[in-house]
Design a protein that fits this description.
globular; two-stranded antiparallel ribbon; alpha/beta; three-stranded parallel β-sheet
């Protein structure tokens, strides 16, 4: 599974908090937790990752930067994500190095 391998690799460098639903992720952030970067699948366990982005933006104008992982949704979906404030967008399958590059770029202010 690409996700499991990726998570193991990222755990060596980052602290990862995994929330299985939009409701849980939004609640965790509303409780004052401030992640440096949020990575969300556009298909968030059968829910829309775009719904998560809307919820996130409703919480705070200074929402954390978001990277979206997508199932090759096309240019319209990618544009919609960037218009929703997404800082990075990767089509699946992707190389773990590409995600790491996006994460480090965001953390370095790029």
């Amino acid at each position: 599974n690409q996700y499991v391998a990726l998570e193991k690799g990222l755990k060596k460098q980052f602290s990862i908090i995994d929330k299985p639903t939009i409701k849980e992720a939004v609640h965790w952030i509303r409780c004052g937790n401030k992640p440096d970067v949020v990575i969300v699948d556009i298909n968030f366990n059968g829910q829309s990752g775009l719904s998560f982005l809307q919820e996130l933006n409703n919480i705070n104008v200074n929402a954390p930067p978001v990277i979206v992982l997508a199932d090759n949704g096309g240019a319209a979906e990618e544009l919609n994500c960037f218009q929703s404030g997404v800082r990075g967008y990767l089509n699946k399958p992707y190389k773990s190095g590409d995600l790491l590059k996006k994460i480090t770029g965001i953390l370095n202010g790029e």
